[in-house]
Write a structure and sequence with these properties.
It catalyses: S-hexadecanoyl-L-cysteinyl-[protein] + H2O = L-cysteinyl-[protein] + hexadecanoate + H(+). The protein is an alpha/beta fold. It has one domain (3-227): Rossmann fold. It contains 7 helices and 9 strands; from the N terminus they run E-E-H-E-E-E-H-E-H-E-H-E-H-E-H-H. It has helices spanning 32-43, 89-108, 123-135, 154-159, 182-194, 213-226, 231-234, and strands at 9-12, 20-25, 52-57, 61-64, 70-73, 116-121, 141-145, 168-174, 199-204. Helix 2 (89-108) crosses helix 3. Residues 1-5 have low confidence and may be disordered.
């Protein structure tokens, strides 16, 4: 059985023919249902599209070092929440394998890889950057909301000298974020841009470590830009 089968998930199905998919990863300690509900509360409706399926998987519970080893739904472990901490690569790589199976499920249902977007909030955004820029450079794009990569991330090392075109990064960050500092997000964006990642970075004054309506509306527009309705698929 594929490892991704162990990931519980909730889905917002497209209103019409399914021709593209978004995989949206929650932040640490949350769940797929939790972030789906949070978005619905802000938008006053689901993040829904005519042709795009939105998948909200839930990370399995694991001991989480920043919580003194208590069990938490996290995509990977961290030694500490800091840009200068080394990465916990064993847990990152294990989850990349699991999420690769989830991408494979979408492809098996007939969705092309370049019609799949990966992204998430906080830890979910970091996980998505690892997944896309190390293993799935042919996805449609990546979004990272209130997220960062560690200063010496393996993502940067693996992009050095990369000759292929890379998926666009849509990044947002609140200037008042006291958990994941705004400058960490800016630094991540600048380093990825320097390695050939086409990217945009949107700053939201007075926004803490949270989602906002304006941010989600911009994200929704970007998703539609990256995954427009495909006339060939809708005939």
């Amino acid at each position: 059985m594929a490892a991704s089968c162990s990931l519980s998930r909730c889905v917002v199905s497209p209103a019409g023919k399914h021709t593209a998919s978004v995989i949206f990863l929650h932040g640490s300690g949350d769940s797929g249902q939790g972030v789906k509900s949070w978005i619905r509360e802000l938008l006053k409706k689901d993040l829904a599209f005519k042709h795009i399926k939105v998948i909200f998987p839930t990370a399995p519970a694991r001991p989480y070092t920043p919580m003194m080893g208590s069990m938490s739904n996290v995509w990977f472990d961290r030694h500490k929440i800091s840009i200068d901490s080394p990465e916990h690569l064993e847990s990152v790589d294990s989850m990349c394998n699991t999420l690769t199976d989830l991408i494979g499920e979408e492809m098996a249902s007939g969705i092309r890889k370049n019609r799949i977007l990966l992204g998430g909030f906080s830890m979910g955004g970091a996980m998505s950057m690892h997944l896309a820029y190390r293993y799935h450079k042919d996805v449609a794009g990546v979004f990272a909301l209130s997220s960062f990569l560690n200063e010496n991330s393996i993502v940067y090392k693996e992009l050095e000298g990369c000759q292929q075109s890379l998926p666009e990064l849509f990044q947002c960050h609140g200037q008042a974020d006291e958990l994941v500092f705004h400058q960490w997000g800016e630094r991540t964006n600048a380093l990825l841009k320097g390695l050939g990642v086409p990217s945009t970075f949107h700053t939201f004054p007075n926004l803490y470590h949270e989602l906002s309506l304006q941010e989600l509306e911009q994200l929704r527009s970007w998703i539609l830009q990256k995954l427009p309705e495909d006339p060939a698929e809708t005939l």
